Amino acid sequence: MNDAVTTDSRALPMPDLRDSFPGPFEVSAYADDIERHAGRWLRTFPLVGSERALSALSQITGQGVARTFPTAERDDLFLCADLFLWLTAFDDAHGEATGARDPALLARTIGDFVHLLAGHDEPPGSAGAFTAALRDLLGRFRERATPLQYLRLTAHVRDNLFGILWEAHHVHRPDHITMPDYRAMRPHTVFVRTVIAMAEVVLGYELRESDRALEPVRELQTAVADLAGWINDLASYAKETAHGGAGTLNLPALLMREHDCDTEEAFRLASRMCEERAAVAAARIVELSAGGGPLSDHAGALKSVASSYVWHIHHSRYRT
Amino acid sequence: MNDAVTTDSRALPMPDLRDSFPGPFEVSAYADDIERHAGRWLRTFPLVGSERALSALSQITGQGVARTFPTAERDDLFLCADLFLWLTAFDDAHGEATGARDPALLARTIGDFVHLLAGHDEPPGSAGAFTAALRDLLGRFRERATPLQYLRLTAHVRDNLFGILWEAHHVHRPDHITMPDYRAMRPHTVFVRTVIAMAEVVLGYELRESDRALEPVRELQTAVADLAGWINDLASYAKETAHGGAGTLNLPALLMREHDCDTEEAFRLASRMCEERAAVAAARIVELSAGGGPLSDHAGALKSVASSYVWHIHHSRYRT
């Protein structure tokens, strides 16, 4: 670890989200089951290199998903967990610094997944563990989701994969990324739109398309999407900078460049931005919860999705 | 033009598709209207650099779309034409050799489109003509298509954009691409899955999901998708090699490497592959047309989609 580039994020200003998301956050009774299932799934599809990493990823995914959808059924929680494991493990193994070293190789690997996502079962070029695991996931989602839900979900998974490739291109060239570029792409690299799309699948409600287009719904989703990415940036800042290179494509780094300020001031600004987004989300959740029906279900889902990201701030995955 | 690397494709063996797609191919009475509309749309959204290129692109798009969906209404034909113009102009301006020079820039540009495709109206980073034109297109598709059709279409547009980026990474490194890689990705770079997805929108039928999963339907679509890409490769070979570099990522070049053979033999092999795919498609079209209903409509749509690509073989865009 290079102390010259490492900042202890625990000493930096962090957002205070207690007004908007006071907690305690509801947790599914299946949290430990999910964690055990995650361990089994990662042994069936070896996406993670070491037993230690497997155990850590199973733990945070189990606990995280149990907070994302605390009222969901066990099998649905397993399905969500597996998709999240797949995305996270792929990003860890092939994205970030590895992807930055050879983006063309990353594009070829993603090409196999695009083939499966586009609905083609014939084996693509490679037959690696990630391909096999994605095929397993898509089959289970096809059984569980309506055609609309399936298409929405697989569209967002494409966006996640594109986001990973986009990030690999810019980890070492963050100066090419403007704040609007970053704000547009960050929700995809943190997978939050995919998590939101899963809510309808696992909680058994379906928004009407006219509801989906309502301004309060759109604003709520955007606020939660922003919040998820920014919280993740702040929480993982120390870890990312410790590994070198990857620490420059995140909200504090962009703010430092934009405002010509130091890390502490950037964290202060970023914290205020998080608090503002959390307040917007919380107000929209109250508003949409009032009417009942699918809109109310959706508001409840977004509340727990946001809560699970808020919970992540303090998780040890992000302590160096 | 460098004669040393240019091959006159007119002298090479080409597929004989008359048994499977005998023609004459039905043409919409609106062909000239589409061409005029395309010219107007490209003046509203300046996606093409020169008046000469604008005129050539409007002409082939007008004539091509008039053969793709000969029975469609005028406004639907305009919508199809505009999407095809957008994809083709984007590939010409930002993909291929330009994309290969700076794939990271291409990824950033595509990032703006992913933002719009994911359903977010807030202006992304750039406000260029391609972004404005895509916004126009998506608004019109949203009005015209069912939610399922819209999601299917926008998923395939994502695949097209990913394909353009994938191609940019490999134009100068074609040796990294295996035949299965190529077969998986080529339908996306020729936009044919997107065209197939448009059929239901503009011809007013809707396949049931259970029909979509039928083996004859899947095989028909895959055969037409293969055929479209391979025909395009053969027809554009001379043009592509004349421009240098881009001519190495196509079916003849892959076959030359795989079989260690010369251009003529590669064209002979490729032609046989096209004829085989055309025969499969034609047989499935006959089979699916027999029963009436949406399956029959779909078979008819695939027939005219395939015919429009067959027609392209002899179009002057692909003569150097």
Automatic annotation (TrEMBL), chains A, B:
Instruction: Name the cofactor(s) required for activity, per the record.
Output: Mg(2+)
Lyase among the record's keywords?
Answer: yes
What is the annotated signal peptide range for this record?
A: none
Major enzyme class: lyase
Q: Which Pfam families match?
A: Terpene_syn_C_2 (PF19086)
UniProt keyword Cell inner membrane present: no
Q: Which keywords describe this protein according to UniProt? A: Lyase, Magnesium, Metal-binding
Enzyme Commission code(s) on record = 4.2.3.-
Q: Which family does it belong to?
A: Belongs to the terpene synthase family.
Q: What is this protein called?
A: Terpene synthase
